[in-house]
Amino acid sequence: MSLAPGDALTSHNFGLQIDGVMVEYLAEVSGLTLEQDVITYQQNSAQGRPEVNLLPGVQKNGQCTVVRGMTQSAAFNTWINDSINGQMSSARKNASIIMMDYQNNPVKRYNMRNAWCSKIDASTLKAGEAAALTETVTIVFEELVIE
């Protein structure tokens, strides 16, 4: 069941690619924001009246938070460890949050340039609990491009 033109995407099927390789299907993504500065330019019109113009400025860097099931994903664990240990030459990666339709076809991408992990938070461990373990990872990036 693929999407027809005009159908809205659903929020149930998405994943994370690092350097073009799908490494994780995620439980949650939040804070994915594209923002740029706004420049206010004031001048007088030919008639002598003040005018205010708003111009686009520089795109801001950003961050997002992803929640993933705690797995033994070697690629994701290496990326996290490189970031936390300050190995920035290997930690900075191009990563993408990819939204997929019902047939796992990519339909929208949020491409993050020079992304790396700045924080990881493991879920609560409780004796006798039968819940899945998760990790909440904060990813920072220098540029976000939406396709």
Key attributes of the depicted protein:
mainly beta; 10 strands; 147 residues
General description of the model:
- With 147 residues, this protein is mainly β.
- The chain is built from two helices and ten strands.
- The chain has helices at 74-84, 88-91; strands at residues 14-18, 21-25, 28-30, 36-44, 50-59, 62-69, 93-100, 106-122, 134-141, 143-146.
- A hairpin with a 5-residue loop joins strand 7 (93-100) and strand 8.
- The longest helix is centred in the middle third of the chain and has 11 residues, at 74-84.
- It is extended and about 75 Å long.
- The mean pLDDT is 88.
Radius of gyration from CA coordinates: 20 Å
Mean pLDDT: 88
Mind describing the biggest β-sheet?
Answer: 8 strands, antiparallel
What is the ordering of alpha helices and beta strands? EEEEEEHHEEEE
Apparent shape = extended
Ranges where pLDDT stays below 50 over 5 or more residues in a row are: none
**Helix count from the secondary structure assignment:** 2
Proportion of residues in β-strands? over 45%
Count the E strands: 10
Tell me the helix content: 10-25%
Structural class: mainly beta
What's the end-to-end separation, in Å? 22 Å
